[in-house]
tRNA (guanine-N(1)-)-methyltransferase (Candidatus Uhrbacteria bacterium RIFOXYB2_FULL_57_15), 223 residues
Amino acid sequence: MPKQKLRRYDVLTIFPDMISGYASESILGRAQEKKRIDVRAHDLRDWAEDKHRRVDDTPYGGGPGMVMKVDMFERGVRNVRGKKGEKVRVILTSASGKTFTQQDARRLAKYDQLIFLCGRYEGVDARVEDHVADEAFSIGNYVLTGGELPALVMIDAVARHVPGVLGAKESLAEESHTEEGMLEYPQYTKPPVYKKWSVPDVLMSGDHKKIEAWRKEQARHTE
Ligand code: SAM
């Protein structure tokens, strides 16, 4: 079998500890042990210019709150970017970005390295999206306090499509949001009756043709 290439996911944030905890558990943790993926969190303050390691400043034109500066994002990306010739994508987390989908997860799983940029405060200097990032993603129509959860959401969804990350038990087949835009059919496990809630008879029938037809009928289209 050809050796699988290690995929690297770098997260630039002012809260690196938020990333390492999640990424070291369960499927992502095992995928790191198996050298399928490598998730690294970096402290943006390491690339700040001044001695106070300041990463934000007041917005030009006035307004409330603070804006994250462009320079430490640019230096950070330059420092963590992998070798020449590798496929790298730089992703800004942004409440106003395009909505991240399963299709994006599948597409981004083919890159050797993804670099995620996490904003905080009132957001990020617009020059980061214009000149440093390749694309900007929102994970949904709501505003979070920072880009760390969005970065983890995207890493989790992308990593599941990296060969060897999911074991045989956690197959990608027959999941929601397939290429055909289907959602998964309802799943049941033991006991057959709980309180008065019973599992549909067809699933207990042992008739595989009938079961398949029932599942097809139950699976809904996403659009
Ligand atoms: N003022 C910004 C606005 O109205 O769009 C919101 C800034 S938010 C408080 C701070 C950071 O959290 C953003 O720069 C972004 O990195 C991240 N963020 C918040 N909501 C997000 C979402 N739905 N998807 C992706 N990133 C998000």
The two ends are 38 Å apart (CA to CA). Residues 93-96, 118-120, 122-124, 138-140, 142-147, 150 surround S-adenosylmethionine (CB under 6 Å). The chain has eight helices and nine strands.
